[in-house]
Amino acid sequence: MRHVVRWRSPIRGPWLTSMFALPLLVGLPVVAFTGLLDRLAYGREQAIPPADAVGGLQLPWWDWPASPAWLFRLTEGLHVGLGIVLVPLVLAKLWSVIPKLFTAPERNPVTLLERLSLVLLVGSILFLIVTGLLNVQYDYVFGFSFYDGHYAAAWVFLASFALHVVTKLPTMVRSLRGRSLRTELATPLAATRPEPAHPLVAPDPDPPTMSRRGALALVGGGMLFVAALTVGQFTDRLRSTALLLPRGRTTAPDSTERGGPNDFPVNRTFVASGIAPAAVGSAWTLTLTGGTAPVVLDRAALAALPQHTAELPIACVEGWSTAQVWTGVRLTDLARAAGVTDPETAEVRSAEVGSPFARSLLNRGQTVSPDSLLALRVNGAELSPDHGYPARLIVPALPGVHNTKWVVTIGFSRAPR
Question: What is the pTM of this model?
Fold first, then answer.
């Protein structure tokens, strides 16, 4: 196998590559697994894309639970947060193996299979990183469905990752055993030497400009730096530090809500919804269906019903999350008002028209959860228009986009006898 001599770093080799690979061996499966869990959280009927939209790439669907309330906040936070923190490590790992991407493989089935897994792995992970970062930064900039593309690429990544692990794990174990981490961390730049001959080791290396411990510190420091700029996405007290993730930081700088009870992240503003102000003005009413006849309630009638208060999080697919104190009417009380004493599901619709998130279908657990609310107030104040006034859905562990705002109808179905 011929070496590409322009890759002449003296620290590149199987040991350093294996050191970069070891945390990825744990971290990348966590990112992938939590991403698939997040897709399950959307539910079969309202998954984005629908459950049958990406060929045969199906998941074993089950009803997403409403308890614990922080479940989706955890899975989405791990998926986005850990995925972003691992980016410097992924790039370092790609740097460490880049000579192999530019050399012709030996003509035997095992080597060809290993090279195919590497090409698919690199291509899929770069696609997932780029589209994922764009999605948390910008609003729907793709010329294709982000959900379709990200989901399909995730399966390519999982298959190629599994194949790559099977073919390269023995090499990684041997490489890690061949050199002492303690010794490498004690080796200064002046004493840094190339590893023994290997396809990743330059045959004619340049003088070292960084030790291996320096490379590990640089990558580790980069990960810590990215983590410091990301943690504010998921922590209300540190929201202003989320400098790389502006979509989830706070309300607009010129908003009248700054510093008030409604000053927390919003994905879709009232203006962006295109709803006519009159549709949610003084003439607004809520229609409940599922009983013998529709029941229509205005906001005063809703406020007269028993009110329940709960601190519940909202977590968005873009990665940000927040926890606020919501007050409103339990869905179970609304179901009884509609004439449905034992609801099986609830379909919630918004005054917004044409948005894929203007409808939410709740399973039984979500519908009957004691903390599932049609919220009228947040943090002791009326909802602002951006947060769903006159009324919005708040359900524990439900993805943020399905906590429908500007609700106008709720249809309950009866549990089967």
Answer: 0.88
